[in-house]
Amino acid sequence: MRTVPEDDLNNEIDPAFAGLTRERDPGRSVEERVVATLRRDGGLRGRAKDRPTARRIMAIAAGIALFTVGLAAGEYHARLRDTRALLKALFPKLLRFDERWGMRDDAPVLAALRKAFGDLSFESMKIPLHLAATDFNNGEQVVLSSGSLVDAIRASIAIPFVFKPWKVGDRLLMDGFLSDPLPVGVAIKEGADVIIAMGFESPYQTRIDSPARFAFQLSSVMTNNLLKSNFAFHNIAHHSEVIPIVPVFSQRIRLFDTEKIPAIIEDGERAAEEQIPYLKRLLGLDGAAAAAR
Q1: For the segment 90-138, what is each residue's pLDDT rounded down to a tens digit?
Q2: How many CA atoms within 13 Å lie on the side-chain side of 85?
Q3: CA 106 to CA 108: how far, in whole Å?
Q4: How far is the C-alpha of 208 from the C-alpha of 219, rounded, in Å?
Q5: Cys-Cys link to 3, which of 84, 195, 231, 284 (CB 3.0-4.6 A)?
Q6: CA distance 82 to 101
Q7: DSSP single-letter state for residue 126
Q8: In angstroms, rounded to a whole number, what is the distance separating the alpha carbons of residues 122 and 107?
Q9: Would you say 164 and 100 are in contact if contact means Cβ atoms under 8 Å apart?
Q10: CA dihedral 57, 58, 59, 62 (to 10 degrees)
């Protein structure tokens, strides 16, 4: 196994994590802070001549992808219902109900994404980035790796019933969790042999008192079972080392609880830190550090 010097790994990862501490600069939106951190550490420059190892590429790319998608959904703080969409649900024939439907107005989240990422594309990323979405028409997983970051992120967070599907090219796309809630298969296809996979189950409803809650409960039941079965399959069928990081939240987190983002990050950090000793042994960093002494 090829070893990576511990200092080389820390110099690339530690600054990125340090820059994600939101409490130090509460006046800026979370998207602005992510972009600023990536630019500062070279994540948005052209491809570097000295590429990092495959393990580091996939680990860092997966982290950026998950973090970006999570923040994009979390920053939707306006909680505005789309009145016309609700009327379409009540009078589908009269108002010509179609597949471009969602209960929430997506203008605030789209504006935040455009403000944060502007015209940036996948091609401008120093570290290869892949975002997973789902084809609305046939349910296939769609991996987005080129073109506009804004379009790709918007498509990948098109939560059923909440945000309307988003068109990228000639395909109408929805949230990637519908086809694979923890898409480690994407990293496997890209040749990764060590994969750090962070995810969590969809919360179940505490009460069912409306059609919407009923629908979300069914969605959670299906996607949570899909997550468990897909993860079990990848562990059995593939030789890649998959390290799952599944935070146990200290409090109940609902879809639009953006004020709880600091607590979510703290719980995620705690879960990740538990895996660091094993990750270092797996990559041979313990031996490299001992030899350096």
Answers
A1: 888 988 998 988 888 888 889 999 999 999 999 999 888 999 999 999 9
A2: 16
A3: 6
A4: 13
A5: 284
A6: 10
A7: S
A8: 23
A9: yes
A10: 120
**Contact predicate 289/9, CB 8 Å:** no
Q: How many other β-carbons are positioned within 10 Å of the β-carbon of residue 292?
A: 9
**Which residue, among 190, 184, 244, has the nearest Cα to 53 in the 3D structure?**
190
Query: Per this entry, what is the length of the chain?
Result: 293
d(CA 234, CA 200): 17
Angle at 264 between CA 29 and CA 221, to 5 degrees: 115
139 close to 179: Cβ distance less than 8 angstroms: yes
Distance, CA of 215 to CA of 10 (rounded, Å): 44
Residues 6+ away with beta carbon under 8 Å from 18: none
Burial class, 106, CB count within 10 angstroms (exposed 0-12 / middle 13-18 / buried 19+): buried
For 184, the token pair is 């480690």
Q: Where are the alpha helices (DSSP H) in the chain?
A: 6-18, 30-40, 54-74, 83-90, 107-117, 149-156, 184-189, 211-237, 261-273, 276-283, 285-292
- First-to-last C-alpha distance (Å) of the chain: 21
pLDDT tens-place string over residues 191-238: 888 888 887 777 788 889 888 788 888 888 988 888 888 777 777 776
Q: What is the pTM of this model?
A: 0.66
